[in-house]
From TrEMBL:
The protein's Enzyme Commission number: 2.6.1.16
Entire-sequence positions represented here: 255 to 622 of 622
Presence of the UniProt keyword Transferase in the record: yes
Organism ancestry: Bacteria, Bacillati, Actinomycetota, Actinomycetes, Nakamurellales
Designated name of the protein: Glutamine--fructose-6-phosphate aminotransferase [isomerizing]
Keyword Coiled coil among UniProt keywords: no
Native source species: Nakamurella panacisegetis
């Protein structure tokens, strides 16, 4: 069933274009985005005045990615919070609050308790879930399923991309209901999403240098990941993959925080992965990232720069350059995460680990 792959995770990484495509399917009727019509229609969405996203692990990172788009499209405040923190707080919720609970398994204990916590305060709860009939969708007001298919590898890959996709659909549905975007703008955003399976597939063809890099740095003690804007949660996800799979110390930072502490960690030869935005669509952020790369290079870091194809400005600062196809700025995480998954898998493989079943981890965390 591994389809010729050594590990399920390799297969699941390759299935990502399909996961994104299948998650998009059926959510646009030619004029409007459709979420879960029966249980959460436009009338309910229209009155929402605040969004909380609750999740754990990679699912939490997918929520962080979506925050940028949802706030931009809807002008609603979006707070993304670890379910294990949210459930023990006294968050300000009411019936006009939408709580989006993101969970691949639908069984994560802290997410389930966060959902119950939210419902007790009459918030509306929308589950984004990959598992039909699981507990969290059952206890939610509505559900948007990610159609990634079963994910066997303990480290989430295709579900993560499918979650980002579903979260963005939620954002578009909110924008449409609130009228913060015209119907034709929503349709254009949806069309941009429809291009993403091909962009992810193209990214997968560009990964040989990443595998080589994984073999080259497999002995490192630590790896840092830097990003800004939507690249920041991608950096967090890259670090989590590396911890899980390769048992290597890895940290993701917002690149703007470098001088506030993390730069003290940079020493000769330390691999630092930098997720760089498009110079065309995000010139200001791009130039900020360039100065961050210069700063770490000056301190001897081994710079691994992930950036847009044809971006000549980054090449001189990159010890290793990893190119991504050009995609809209808010959608870059769907392609930028792919090399980080492959890097972690390759390092783990080189170290001789079972990438489907990392030590100490379970696929779903149903006890706290
Ligand atoms: O099933 P869930 O999406 O609720 O699981 C959440 C986390 O346990 C999960 O994402 C975990 O962090 C993965 N092992 C990440 O690869």
């Amino acid at each position: 069933e591994k389809g010729g792959h050594e590990f399920f995770m390799d297969k699941e990484i390759q299935e990502q274009p399909q996961a994104v495509e299948d998650t998009l399917r059926g959510h646009f009727d030619g004029t409007r985005i459709v979420l879960d019509e029966q249980r959460l229609g436009e009338d309910e969405l229209r009155t929402i005045d605040k969004v909380f996203v609750v999740a754990c692990g990679s699912s939490y990172h997918s929520g962080l990615v979506a925050k940028y788009a949802i706030e931009h499209w809807t002008r609603l405040p979006v707070e993304v919070e670890l379910a294990s923190e949210f459930r023990y707080r006294d968050p300000v919720l009411d019936r006009d609050t939408l709580v989006v609970a993101i969970t691949q398994s639908g069984e994560t204990a802290d997410v389930l308790e966060a959902v119950r916590h939210a419902r007790r305060q009459r918030a509306r709860v929308l589950a984004v879930c990959n598992t039909n009939g699981s507990q969290i969708p059952r206890e939610s007001d509505a559900v948007v399923y990610t159609h990634a298919g079963p994910e066997v590898g303990v480290a989430s890959t295709k579900c993560f991309l499918a979650q980002i996709t579903a979260n963005l659909l939620v954002g578009l549905a909110l924008a449409q209901a609130r009228g913060t975007k015209y119907a034709d703008e929503v349709a254009r955003e949806y069309e941009a999403l429809l291009e993403m399976p091909a962009a992810v597939a193209e990214t997968l063809t560009l990964m040989d240098p990443v595998r080589q890099l994984g073999r080259d740095i497999a002995d490192s003690k630590a790896v840092l990941f830097l990003g800004r804007h939507v690249g920041f949660p991608v950096a967090l996800e890259g670090a989590l993959k590396l911890k899980e799979l390769a048992y290597m110390h890895a940290e993701g930072f917002a690149a703007g925080e470098l001088k506030h502490g993390p730069i003290a960690l940079v020493e000769d030869g330390l691999p630092v992965v930098v997720v760089t935005p498009s110079p065309k669509s995000q010139p200001l952020l791009h130039s900020k990232l360039l100065s961050n790369i210069r700063e770490i290079q000056a301190r001897g870091a081994r710079t691994i720069v992930i950036g847009e194809e044809g971006d000549e400005t980054i090449a001189p600062f990159a010890d290793t350059l990893i190119e991504l196809p050009r995609v809209p700025a808010l959608l870059q995480p769907l392609v930028a995460t792919v090399p980080l998954q492959i890097l972690a898998a390759e390092i783990a493989r080189t170290r001789g680990y079972d990438i489907d079943k990392p030590r100490n981890l379970a696929k779903s965390v149903t006890v706290e």
